[in-house]
Amino acid sequence: MNILEYENYHETITHGDIIFPYNTYLCSIPLDFPRVPLHWHDELELIYIKKGMGRITVDFREYKVKGPTLVLILPGQLHSIDQLEDAFMEYENIIFNPSMLIPRQNDVTATDFLLPLMSGKVTVPTIFTPVYPYYTDVIMPIDACDEISKTKPQGYELYIKSQLYQFFFILDNRCRNLTTGSNRKTLDKMKIVLKYIENNYMQKITIADIAATVDFSESHFMRYFKETMGTSFVDYLRDYRLTIASRLLTTSDSSILDIAAESGFENLSYFNRVFKQKYSMTPRQFRKESQ
């Protein structure tokens, strides 16, 4: 699964498997892709690191992780996955819509835990490693889902649902925390910005355009972005476009000129120059090496 498929997987799920929206993807960094840019979506995601090590950010907090580790990404949380130096990381993405566990007429399982958890009113840990006191309890139902997904016998959907309820029972019964009161306003603004980039990176984006999406002046937006992301908006957008271009070079037969344009670069010589600065080789060399 390449990075473009990764970022748009929810569209595939919506059109392809809406009846039982539970999906598992096996991924490897850097074999499949060197990084997954910061993004968010409405589904719940479990990043289950099996081997190796890498770096994951969740709502701007950075975690250096190594297998075995389970990372819980709640709906709407900003997150990214990166290669850590020259290390590899094999992991499993388990992605599902929480609505599959919430009855149409809400009962206590939804109102007392599932809905408050999804909305951030109650919190649980983000990272679960073997040193966590209840790691085995947390991981057991996820392993059970993996095991039955190998054969998918009649009624396996019932079993997966039962194990997911068990998973959330463990989180509620043993891992629940008090509300942390994190800066939701900052996160919500940045989510708007990142979604705008995701949908418009191939077009020309000015500071005025992006600032207007969050009702900021240009100067306030540039300061806000730098303080929140640790880099300038211009540098972030360029790096995002280069990431898209690198994947297109390995997954399509389009010309380098077309890939530059599709990634949002209007000038081919500029694209070649910044690409070489980032990857230490030209786009043509990068494509040849990947093949």
UniProtKB/TrEMBL annotation:
<dbReference type="InterPro" id="IPR003313">
    <property type="entry name" value="AraC-bd"/>
</dbReference>
<keyword id="KW-0804">Transcription</keyword>
<dbReference type="InterPro" id="IPR020449">
    <property type="entry name" value="Tscrpt_reg_AraC-type_HTH"/>
</dbReference>
<dbReference type="InterPro" id="IPR018060">
    <property type="entry name" value="HTH_AraC"/>
</dbReference>
<protein>
    <submittedName>
        <fullName>AraC family transcriptional regulator</fullName>
        <ecNumber>2.1.1.-</ecNumber>
    </submittedName>
</protein>
<dbReference type="InterPro" id="IPR009057">
    <property type="entry name" value="Homeodomain-like_sf"/>
</dbReference>
<dbReference type="GO" id="GO:0043565">
    <property type="term" value="F:sequence-specific DNA binding"/>
</dbReference>
<dbReference type="InterPro" id="IPR037923">
    <property type="entry name" value="HTH-like"/>
</dbReference>
<keyword id="KW-0238">DNA-binding</keyword>
<dbReference type="GO" id="GO:0008168">
    <property type="term" value="F:methyltransferase activity"/>
</dbReference>
<dbReference type="Pfam" id="PF12833">
    <property type="entry name" value="HTH_18"/>
</dbReference>
<dbReference type="InterPro" id="IPR014710">
    <property type="entry name" value="RmlC-like_jellyroll"/>
</dbReference>
<dbReference type="Pfam" id="PF02311">
    <property type="entry name" value="AraC_binding"/>
</dbReference>
<keyword id="KW-0489">Methyltransferase</keyword>
<dbReference type="InterPro" id="IPR018062">
    <property type="entry name" value="HTH_AraC-typ_CS"/>
</dbReference>
<dbReference type="GO" id="GO:0032259">
    <property type="term" value="P:methylation"/>
</dbReference>
<feature type="domain" description="HTH araC/xylS-type">
    <location>
        <begin position="191"/>
        <end position="289"/>
    </location>
</feature>
<dbReference type="GO" id="GO:0003700">
    <property type="term" value="F:DNA-binding transcription factor activity"/>
</dbReference>
<keyword id="KW-0808">Transferase</keyword>
<keyword id="KW-0805">Transcription regulation</keyword>
